[in-house]
Amino acid sequence: MTICKNIVICHKAALITPASSSFLSEFKRAFTLPENMKTEDVTSSLSEDGILKIEGVRDVKPAITDVPILVEHSSTD
Questions:
Q1: Helix, coil or strand: residue 10
Q2: Separation CA 17–CA 14 (nearest Å)
């Protein structure tokens, strides 16, 4: 796996030699990571049945929002 900026490139090649012949099996995919993904924490794995899993940690900062508070004043007569 290679990461360049926010692009992940997964590449795997294997020489398969069943019985009397051989062939090269190759897999290559590129994915764009979300902007808030911490690239140093991204990992990938390919299962035996060919499922590619890419995992990572998002650097999520809490949103700061203004929440209006309604204050009611009651008059005492």
A1: strand
A2: 10
Domain ranges of the chain: 2-58
Distance CA 56, CA 1 (A): 13
CATH class (in words) of the domain with range 2-58:
mainly beta
Taking only the tens place, the pLDDT of each residue in 3-56 is 777 777 777 777 888 777 887 878 788 888 888 888 888 888 877 777 778 888
Q: Is residue 12 classed exposed, middle or buried when 0-12, 13-18 and 19+ CB atoms within 10 A define those classes?
A: middle
Dist CA 53 CA 43 (whole Å)? 8
Is the pTM value of this prediction over 0.85?
A: no
Position of tokens 């990572």? 56
Tokens found for residue 35: 């902007």
pLDDT in tens, 15-29: 888 777 887 878 788
